[in-house]
Amino acid sequence: MNQKNSLNIDQVREKFPGLANGWAFFDNAGGTQVLASVVERVSDFLLNKNAQLGGSYAVSQEAARSLMKGREAMMKFVNAGRPEEIVFASSSTVALQNLVRAMAGQLREGDEIIVTVSDHETNIGPWVSLEKIGVRIKVWNLDRETLQLRLEDLDALMTERTKLVAVTHASNIIGTVNPVGDIADFVHERGALICVDSVALAPHRVIDVRAWDIDFLVFSLYKVFGPHYAVMYCKYSLFIELDNLYHYFYDKESIPVKLEPGNANYELAYASTGIVDYLCDLGRQTGASGTVHNKIAAAYERIAEHERAIAERLLVFLRSRDDCRIIGHDHGDHPDRVPTISFRFHGRDAGDLARRMDGFNIAIRYGDFHARRLIEYLDLANANGVVRVSMAHYNTLDEVDALVAAFEQILA
After folding, report:
1. Between the N and C ends of the chain, which has fewer C-beta atoms within 10 Å?
2. What is the number of other CB atoms lying within 10 angstroms of the CB of residue 366?
3. Are 25 and 76 in a shared domain?
């Protein structure tokens, strides 16, 4: 491991108070632990800046600045061009439901939208709801052997009526990273838009909406070391055309508030600045300079290197067993894998294995993880789905060794 880029894991873990409670958390794709700096910002806002926006008085003005700081932080996180392109929502699911509602007026009977079988239902169900106005939904299936999306299969689905392709950035079951920049180019060349669900990627890899020319993108802050909140990026030129979901006296140019009915949650938006500050600090430790996004990118290089090591530690064990089926790439150092690892032990119920792990103070999960269409497509719906071990960069090799030892005991 490159010494300069390697994480000081003790320093990292000190930033996450929840890691001191005696549990090893391997359910991070369901929700990561929260940075102390994020909690401090929530408290700071509520205790010192808690006022409604729009007032002439100083506290209201400070509240407005705090919300803008949150937008600016998330703008830099995804490398958007302006803070108005950032929309806050209670969840990624709600963000996409709102996007679909705001876009419905642009669609006509017979228009087509393509979804993938590998997405979380968040980036499928809202689009499928458009069938009630006559939109045709097509499904881009995985190659059953490689478990990857192929552009030639997408090409066969697209027509002159295709308006949008919705695709996952990384599967929350398979852990495979999709080349969304290449997919965006492919889709745009054929006159359609792209909507990317980056929820399962955002804790592990840098996001760059401008480099990839993404039209819409969502991710959840609570899976990136923050509060239970979500972010959606909307390309400005497209945002203008979306319908207003707020009060009638807002118009199409009321960006971004027209997609934040009832207002954003000020304290949670402001707290997102703690995520960016933390990642910038990790990036600076490698000598990274320049823009905030440059530092974030350097931080993710460090994160990815550590995560490759801990993922491979588990996958070595799983590969050694002739009763285990690994879903997705079976080596942790594969460049297109994040450390979200799903698997099955032949003849064993996934739920039973996960519940027995509780006795070791090790948190894992089982099921379909709201990617039910994928689980059914892969014929994995029986026996309570799959076991999923989802790692974050604050997990340690010692924790993985304890996990392996617990599996060996449970499976004996």
Report:
1. C
2. 21
3. no
Residues 328 and 393 in one domain: yes
CA separation for the pair 45, 70 (Å, rounded):
12
Closest to 238 in 3D by CA, of 70, 360, 102 = 102
Cβ pair 119, 200 in contact under 8 A: no
For 122-177, how does the pLDDT look when each residue is reduced to its tens digit (9 = 90+)?
999 999 999 999 999 999 999 999 999 999 999 999 999 999 999 999 999 999 99
Asked if the structure places residue 1 within a domain, the reply is: no
Cβ atoms of residues 404 and 360 within 8 Å: no
Beta strand pairing call for 193-197 and 216-220: parallel
Which of 392, 293, 247, 224 minimizes the C-alpha distance to 76? Answer: 293
The domain tally of the chain equals: 2
Q: Rounded to whole angstroms, how far apart are CA atoms 381 and 375?
A: 6
Q: How far is CA 80 from the centre of its chain?
A: 16
Same domain, 23 and 49: no
pLDDT-above-90 percentage for the chain: 98
Rounded-to-integer distance, Cα 184 and Cα 195, Å: 9
Distances from the Cα of 337 to the Cαs of 52, 128, 352, in angstroms?
43, 28, 27
Q: Do 68 and 150 share a domain, yes or no?
A: yes
133, 29: one domain: no
* pLDDT confidence tier of residue 6, bands split at 50, 70 and 90: confident
- Look at residue 1 in the predicted model and tell me its pLDDT: 44
Residue finishing a domain among 245, 276, 307: 276
